[in-house]
Design a protein that fits this description.
This protein has about 350 residues and is α+β, with helices and mostly antiparallel strands. Helix content is about 60%, strand content about 10%. The protein is elongated, with a radius of gyration of 38 Å. The chain starts with a helix and ends with a helix.
Length: about 350
């Protein structure tokens, strides 16, 4: 070892260095069996790294979300007393707030408690994920299963669901915007089971976008429902006015009394008012329908997680190779040290 250090420091010439390496080679050869054994042991230990640090699959989905500001059509609707709030009323789901929506407890739990087709069977995502968690290895919790109805959960199931939600946010789900200036959102699920990773990514995006659209368009949909109810009432009133006007005209035919003409003219006025009201409400309803369509943002899935998924982590043979290299290095070191002592 001392001669080797001298060579590394440049204190030995070529001839002396050649002699040093020949001696080292002989020492290593004499301990080759020991080095082989440590190499095999290292490879075996490295192979166990697959179970301790399993490789995982990355299921990534990319979304393009439309964002907009107040425009001319909103000002036009405001002139008719219609407030649809824009593409994002109040800005509640702009930028990072929309990204965080994917990872809220409500969204994650809602996703976990829904069924997905995995291996040809319809199973709850949480029941498919649970065996991969640390709680499933605990005899006290190994028997726990979950159902779709959240209200039927026991306190134990509630507690486990909270723990699993935190585990998902920490270890599985990752949502981010690579550039704040762009309206692109990446949703990643990383798990050792590629089928769960893909199914969870698809499900959490579906649930979150549905909730997003419902929240964004809630005000416009309420306005639309109110106008639709008013239109139905105005249409019914118009039909009654038409029938009353026709009846009044029938009674005034060949009549010499002016009293019969009063009912005729009164029914005609009511018909005109009902008709004008119906036209105005119908116009507002049409504008509200246009506003609802314009207020509904476009959410386009640009890329879906399709097989084969990107894998992270080392494969079994890579673990064995690393372990074998470390075992061989340890064997060589021990051989040189023991030879030096001898």
């Amino acid at each position: 070892m001392a001669n080797l250090m001298q060579w590394l420091n440049g204190d030995l010439g070529p001839k002396e260095a050649k002699d040093v390496f020949i001696k080292l080679g002989r020492k290593i050869w004499r301990r080759s069996v020991f080095i082989l054994i440590t190499t095999l042991i290292g490879a075996g230990i490295g192979w166990n790294g697959v179970w301790v640090f399993p490789s995982k699959y990355n299921a990534q989905l990319m979304l393009a979300v439309e964002e907009g500001e107040t425009s001319g059509w909103q000002n036009l609707l405001a002139q008719f007393g219609l407030d649809v709030g824009g593409l994002n009323p109040g800005g509640i789901f702009e930028g990072e707030s929309l990204v965080q929506l994917f990872q809220t407890r409500y969204m994650v739990e809602r996703t976990l408690l829904q069924k997905a087709e995995l291996h040809g069977d319809s199973v709850l995502l949480i029941n498919y994920l649970y065996p991969y968690t640390k709680w499933a290895n605990d005899p006290e919790y190994a028997h726990v299963t979950f159902s779709e109805n959240r209200e039927d959960f026991t306190p134990l199931q509630d507690s486990l669901l909270l723990e699993i939600y935190q585990f998902v946010n920490k270890e599985i789900l990752d949502v981010y915007k690579p550039d704040k200036k762009l309206s692109l959102i990446y949703v990643n699920s990383v798990h050792e089971n590629k089928y769960f990773a893909q199914a969870f990514t698809e499900a959490v995006v579906k649930n979150t976008t549905e909730y997003f659209l419902e929240s964004i368009t809630s005000k416009a949909r309420v306005n639309l429902e109110v106008l639709q109810a008013q239109k139905d009432s105005a249409e019914l009133a118009l039909k009654h006015a038409i029938i009353r006007n026709a009846s009044a005209q029938d009674q005034s035919i060949n009549s010499i009394f002016q009293r019969s003409q009063v009912d005729k003219y009164a029914s005609y006025v009511d018909l005109e008012i009902a008709n004008a009201l119906f036209i105005e409400i119908t116009k507002n309803l049409t504008l509200a329908e246009i506003g609802l369509r314009k207020q509904t943002p476009l959410i386009q899935v640009v890329e879906r997680p399709i097989f084969p998924l990107k894998r992270t982590g080392m494969l079994w043979w890579e673990w064995m190779l690393v372990g074998a290299a470390m075992g061989a290095a340890f064997g060589v070191y021990r051989a040189l040290v023991q030879s030096e002592k001898a």
